[in-house]
Amino acid sequence: MPASKQLLCSIFKVCTLSLSVIFISIQVNSVFAEPNFGVAGDWGCTSNTEKTVSNIRSHSSPERVFALGDYSYRTDGSASDDCWLDIISAIKSRTRITIGNHEDDSNEGFSSYMSSFGLSQTYYAFTYDKVRLIVMDSDRNSFSNGSNQYNYVVSQLQQASQDSNIKWIIVYFHKPMYTSPSSCSTCPSIADTNLRDTYHPLFDQYGVDVVLMGHVHNYQRTFPIKYNPVSPSSPTRTSTATTDYFDPVGQIFVIVGTGGVSLNGLGSKSYFVKYQQDDRFGALDINIENNGNTLAGRYYTNDGVKRDVFKITKTGTAQYNFGPSLSLSGE
Q: Are 310 and 252 in contact (CB under 8 A)?
């Protein structure tokens, strides 16, 4: 082989190797990071609370923990020696709270919770990878139409729905919009109808995927449902599938009030609820899977048993933008 041809062959092989490395690098960098989240509310400061923390750490090893309100159930107004903060110390840096009805007053430690988690406002939003989390306040600040919180939430929903980098929208707050009949005798209102009627239509409009709630001390998970303006207390169930949902209309609502303080018995199961349980404490594990196209929820009780599973899969073709486009024509 002529020396010139050998030289060209050598150069070509090197170039091919280099291009392969570049291609592999692009493929790796385009893969979704697939984050993991732990979820629980209504914690208290009991041995069951400690088991819930262990549950979250063992089954989730989460990047973030969503705390759905009602923590130490304090009434002394003290800003120190908070038992719940002590119990969650191993996951506190990863925890993002919403304010519940047991910490929304000054004598319930409101200020210390705000300062402990670096919050200047009770409603806020954050992004983890391609998941947008919108945290609402159902207990302290007004959420009525036209309020500061309402305007903030609407703007966040608009931004998230229009952002091509956002794959999933999760909203969480304390008081539930929907629930099966419950024995929660101490709950001022089992389902907050004003909250429901104000925000569920917006969740439909802007494509929210999952809504997380507490307040009622049990676990409930709905089918995908959308708001029913004719009979708001009877949401429209958009799927009868039990576990797997593909591009569902509406949202899956989940009550995870099983953090450890106590349990509220359930009566009948509402038609829009797929699974519920009222006799064990536990936490929800949310994983983003399938290169970001599937959101999987798995509910583990503190005895280590997986009691509920649901999966939402978005089947639309993912769009990637690596730079200038290349158009080819011809056969």
A: yes
**What single DSSP character describes residue 79?**
S
The span from the CA of 214 to the CA of 175, in Å, is 6
H helices within 163-272, ranges in order? 193-206
167: left (phi over 0), alpha (psi -120 to 50) or beta: alpha
Which residues does 276 contact at the CB level (< 8 Å), separation at least 6? Answer: 180, 218, 219, 220, 221, 266, 269
* 69: region left, alpha or beta (phi > 0 left; psi from -120 to 50 alpha): left
pLDDT in 10s for each residue of the chain, 331 residues? 555 545 444 444 444 444 443 333 333 334 446 899 999 999 999 999 999 999 999 976 899 999 999 999 987 655 445 899 999 999 999 999 999 999 999 889 999 999 999 999 999 999 999 999 999 999 999 999 999 999 999 999 999 999 999 999 999 999 999 999 887 666 545 778 999 999 999 999 999 999 999 999 999 999 999 999 999 999 999 999 999 999 999 999 999 999 999 999 998 899 999 999 999 999 999 999 999 999 999 999 999 999 999 999 999 744 333 333 333 333 3
Q: Which among 66, 202, 209, 204 has a CA at the least distance from the CA of 130?
A: 209
Contacts of 74 (CB under 8 A, 6+ apart): 82, 102, 103, 107, 108, 109
- 167 C-beta neighbours (distance < 10 Å), count: 18
Three-state SS letters, 273-328: EEEEECCCCEEEEEEEECCCCEEEEEEEECCCCEEEEEEEECCCCCCCCCCCCCCC
Q: How far apart are CA 222 and CA 276, in angstroms?
A: 9
The answer to whether residues 102 and 140 touch, using CB atoms and an 8 Å cutoff, is no
